[in-house]
Amino acid sequence: MMSEKQIRQETSENDGFENKNSGLWTQNLTVGYDRIPLIRDVELHVHPGEILTLIGPNGSGKSTILKTITKQLSKIAGTIYVEGTPADKLKDSEISKQLSMVMTERLRTELMTGREVVASGRYPYTGKLGILSEEDWKKVDEAIELVNAKEVAEQDFRRISDGQRQRLMLARAICQDTQILVLDEPTSYLDMGFKLDILANIRRLAREKNIAIIMSLHELDLVSKISDTVACVKGDKIDRIGTPEEIFTGDYIQKLYGVDEMSFDPVTGQVFLHVEKKAPEVFVIGGGGSGIAVYQKLQRKQIPFAAGILQENDVEFAAARALGSEVVSEKAFSSIGMDKVEKAKQLIDSCHSCICAVDEFGPQNEACLNLKEYAQEKGKLMYSV
Amino acid sequence: MKKRYIISFGLFIVLLAGLFLWNVGVGSVEMSFSDFLGLFAKNTDNPTLYQIVWKIRLPRIVAAILLGGALSVSGFLLQSFFQNPIAGPYVLGISSGAKLVVALTMIFLLEKGIMISSFGMVAAAFVGSLLAMGFVLLISFRVSRMSLLVVCGIMIGYICSAITDFCVTFASDSNIVNLHNWSMGSFSGMTWDNIRIMTVLVGVTVVVTFFLAKPIGAYQMGESYARNLGVNVKALRIGLILLSSLLSACVTAFAGPISFVGIAVPHLVKLATGTAKPIVLIPGCFLCGAVVTLFCDGIARTVFAPTELSISSVTAVFLVPVVIAAMLRKQKL
Lengths: 385, 333
Prior knowledge:
Mean pLDDT of chain A: 89
Transmembrane segments (chain B): 58-78, 90-110, 116-141, 148-171, 195-214, 235-258, 278-297, 309-328
Strand content of chain A: 15-25%
Largest interface: A-B, 35 and 23 residues
Number of domains of chain A: 2
Shape of chain B: globular
Shape of chain A: elongated
Low-confidence stretches of chain A: 1-17
CATH architecture of the largest domain in chain A: 3-Layer(aba) Sandwich
Pfam families (chain B): FecCD (PF01032)
Keywords (chain B): Cell membrane, Membrane, Transmembrane, Transmembrane helix, Transport
Largest sheet of chain A: 6 strands, mixed
Strand content of chain B: under 5%
Oligomer: heterodimer
Radius of gyration of chain A: 27 Å
Main location (chain B): membrane
Membrane topology (chain B): Multi-pass membrane protein
CATH class of the largest domain in chain A: Alpha Beta
């Protein structure tokens, strides 16, 4: 066990970059239920102003980690440092001024307006009878303003929609005025608009108020846009930790979630349903994103298809590869070779029809125009599915 | 402070004052209006009436006020603790547990020729309350559905009542007649000595409860959020159990088990004030509980005077509809 002095010395040596006196830091943390370890050696450090996101499949233990940090579960081993002090040495009332949370558990209310729910965040700062001062109410209203929930603030909390409710829960955590914020799946049950809005608020909060935020998230496409650090929970450990760029490369994410390689495109964040690869019945001439809608429609109708001719850096390449039975492709930034055109023509011959999704042709996709004419000659060209 | 709170509290106080005067004025012994005024003028030309009012009616009224208030606050605490709108000292079997231990203690001591003091009664009732509460808690760890908890509480209540009846039936002493009256629930036979003890106990407990309004408010929203706000949840839970048991023990010791006041009054207060905040509800429940109990006791002793109804029969008639309405309202949300 290091003394605080030692820690401080170490910090100064690290030039403040690994500043262990601020934010949230876990050391050798082991978490689990009923003293049975679930995840061992959790080493996370959330700096002020930054967002750390936990990802991993359902049941991997993201919530267990967050519940342990918020002291709803007792830890099995290790230390949690809150602003540089081990959490064990802090009283609950002291932690309440340094760490706030929004968990998946519903807040139970009776006859409370949204504003009163937000006001409960001021609890640690009120006196014996819990009566809020002018100042407290000002902070409550500021927080409501910040999350754009003013219009529902006076309604009964139980009748407010999930999205607005989540905004109010965030406002409640904001007006608790803490340096650390823990969020367990803050976007679940929300529609896309509210999802983006809540995440934008969270991002802004971290930067503007210099708050250290740790959260779990399921929307992989949003994770890389909002997080400074991503920690992947798998098996009994934090499997990998790094910047989104480090995590979302190669086939790591597919492995993390145990899905096949074709189901997720780490570059665009697109996900694809699994399809059986059968002999193609339709050939799709695509490129530049124009084919995606056609691929999806064919996949919904369960018609196997082939696609081409796509350069490997084409936006729809990943979609075509995931959904199509066969893809005729050319290397990135290269002009299409004659061998590829021949291959595509053979495929058109084997299919009963051909769909051309491309409207515009130029020097880059001359080969596709060539294919279109070929299909027309053969009487196989169609314009829609 | 909201206008609605002031109006509600004003209403409770006006009702309480009205009921107080009504309860002084009516009873098996008729009283004319001039007699009534005479009581205030220290006019002692009717000493019997003066004695009746001073020695019988007033202690009974004060007891109904204090114990009715205590019962309602106890009900509110239990509803907060179990997060269950139909929890109350009677339905959870806590009153019956207290009744059983008090009856056993009384019979045991009467056999030996010892009269039990009112303080001893409270102590016995407190032990009984805690025992029944312990049972309910054990069950509450095992059942997740709150309706089941209430069913179990009612069962516990029946068992305790059955054992009490059994003991009362076979007890030898003639004093047992009193015990029988008491075990049905009644405010009759209160003395000023009783009142003194009850004032101290109920007063202290309700004031302590009032100062727990802040953590109770946080606890109402859910355990994990309360903990995150710095509430010592374990200590608060123990506090809630002790306070609610003490309050219902006090009631049972002096007046026997009284049904439905504990469940229904918190709902009436929420309806009147439009809030569930403990800081409003605790004093509100005390006042409204006093109003309801005083009203029901007045009915109990006047409707078929000189025969007295048991207080629980009256409370059941007036308060069961309130409980049912509250449950239906809860269902809608």
